[in-house]
Amino acid sequence: MGSSDLYKIYTSRENYFVRLNRAGTRSQANIDAETDFLKFCNFNGVLVSTPICDIEGVIVQQTQTPEGAQPATIFPEIAGNSISKQLPKQLKNFGRQVAFFARL
What pairs with residue 73 in β-bridges? Predict the structure, then answer.
């Protein structure tokens, strides 16, 4: 069991993913740091799905569920290759990219 659930939303124009973080598993600071890192990577040319904000600029929304309020974030679906079956070369290249951007 992970710290979040992922739901795919299909629309006539685009597809999206909603990540619903389980209450109490991640702090708001942790979620904010992750979304800031994704925006940073995207700004620097790394192909990542960046979170979508509402008209007021809020990225993480508190969503009411049967278990209580849970933080939710919406991401657009983007083209790319999965690294769910990691190859050593893929992981090495990914690590180099992350290390490069961490130095900026």
Answer: 19
pLDDT tens-place values along the chain, 104 residues long? 567 888 999 999 999 999 998 877 888 888 888 888 888 888 888 778 889 988 998 888 888 888 888 889 999 998 766 656 667 777 787 778 777 766 65
Q: How far apart are CA 75 and CA 70, in angstroms?
A: 16
With a CB cutoff of 8 Å and minimum separation 6, the contacts of 21 are 3, 4, 31, 70, 71, 72, 73
pTM recorded for the entire structure: 0.68
Q: Using DSSP, state whether 52 is helix, strand or coil.
A: strand
User: Which of 50, 54, 44, 60 lies closest to 80, judged by CA?
Assistant: 50
Domain limits at 10?
4-103
CATH no. for residue 22?
3.30.200.20
**Which residues neighbour 99 within 8 Å (Cβ) at sequence distance 6 or greater?**
none
